Amino acid sequence: MAAAKSNTNWFVIGVSAAVVVVLAVLALVVVNLNNQATAPGPTPEGAIINQDSGAITIGNGEDTVDTYIDFMCPICNQFEQQYGEQLQTAANNDKITLNIHPIAILDFRSTTDYSSRSAAAMYCVAENDPDVALDYMAALFENQPAEGSAGLDDAQLKEYAKQVGADGSVDCISDKTYLKFPVAQAKAHEIKGTPTIEVNGKRLDLQAGDISQMEKLLG
To answer: Is the previous residue joined to 42 through a cis bond, with omega within 30 degrees of 0?
Structure first.
C-alpha cells in the first residue's frame, strides 16, 4: 500500500507538472499572437522619413512643428485648409522643420479601416516618390470620404497617387506594406485625438487657444 501511495503521488506530481508546462506554452502562444497583432510591421524608409519619430519631415528650421493627422478626420482637413500652405511654405524656406505624422485612430469610423489604409498609402508615397508626397496628402484631403462610409478603396488610393506622379508607389499601396505602421505610431506617440499639434516638442491644447504658439512661428 505504501508503494502504491508513493506511485500515485508521483503520478499526480507528474500530471501537475505537465499541466504547468502546457499552460506556459499556451501563454507563450497567446503572447506571440498578441505581439504579431500589435507589431508595427515594416518601417518606411526614405530621405524624408525620420527613422526615430516616424515623421515625414520637410524643411530644416530651428523651430519644429509636429502635426499628427488622420485622413478620416474632418477637423484635420480643416486644419490643413487653414494652415497647410503656410506650414509648408515656412518649411520649404527652412523657417521651421515640419514633421507630418500620418496616424490611424479612426478605423472604426469606416467599414474598411480607411484610416490605416490611407496613412499607409501616404507612407508609400513618402518613401518612393518623396517629391510629390505633399501633393498626395493634399489629394487625400481634397477627396476625403465621409465618416461612417467605406472610404476610398485601394484602386482610388492608387489612382490619386498616379495623378500626382507617384507611379513608383502603386505596388506598395497594393501590397499594403505599411498597413500596421500608422496604428503603431498613434500608440507610440500616445495620440488620443486628431489633429494633435506640437511646437518644439510641446503638445498644444487647441481648445485653450495654444494654436497661437504655432501661428507666431508662421509670422
So the answer is: no
* pLDDT recorded at residue 38: 56
Instruction: Please indicate, yes or no, if residue 175 is contained in any of the structural domains.
Output: yes
| Measured distance CA(55)–CA(62) in Å, rounded | 16
Q: 150-185: b or e for each residue (b if 16 or more CB lie within 10 Å)?
A: ebbeeeebbebbeebebeebbebbeebbbbbbbbbb
Residue 47 lies in a domain: no
Q: Please list the ranges in the chain whose pLDDT falls under 70.
A: 1-38, 40
Number of folded domains that form the chain: 2
State residue 30's pLDDT score: 41
Q: What does the pLDDT read at residue 181? A: 98
On whether both 30 and 109 belong to a single domain, the answer is no
Give the span between the Cα atoms of 160 and 170, in whole angstroms: 10
C-alpha grid cell, residue 44: 518606411
DSSP three-state, residue 104: coil
User: Which cell goes with 163?
Assistant: 495623378
